[in-house]
């Protein structure tokens, strides 16, 4: 009997590992629907689907290891980061998914709401919240949409040696801003951005917008993390990302 490992569990969903299979349990069937459709469309390595019986989606483990985890130095090579950038470029150049992405108006409303919560609770100094709110403004501009992963955390990109072996967790995939994916993958690992761009290319990259998404993502994710038992104030995590922006020119 394989041991059951709880990978992540909170009120919205849980992921369990049983041997070489991951069982994703989600109360919202739309998440699995998007994930299945996105993986079928993505021109980059994705996990094998084993079976799907709502509310459970079973996928096979991908070989290799994640690029890293938030709060710790990435053990992956520069070549592996460049390979991740090249894979991301292929995704962004693929045909758009046929479902809608998030409206900028909704993102702006969420940003205002979460900044108000941060100021009201005092979990961060007011000047840190206000300065990052200013920086985040650059992300709230009209842009051409591309096929984005939508939640491209370090732990969602796996590499085997210097090659991408699989990208997991596609439930947020949609048309969106390419700079968002670049920002989420380098959140808390800003020193790896040049390695990532070595494979992605730099001709259409806007570093100001990437910095804006670092701020916006950290501001809007903090309350959810706190309420679901995570610590955005752990070393190298979201609060450190926000504090680092205070040193930007």
TrEMBL record:
InterPro entries per the UniProt record, alphabetical: AGP_Transferase, Aminoglycoside_PTrfase, Kinase-like_dom_sf
Top-level lineage group: Bacteria
Annotated transmembrane regions: none
Signal peptide: none
Classification via SUPFAM superfamilies: Protein kinase-like (PK-like)
Pfam family, one: APH
Domain named Aminoglycoside phosphotransferase: residues: 35-213
PANTHER family: AMINOGLYCOSIDE PHOSPHOTRANSFERASE DOMAIN-CONTAINING PROTEIN-RELATED, AMINOGLYCOSIDE PHOSPHOTRANSFERASE-RELATED-RELATED
Protein name, UniProt field: Phosphotransferase
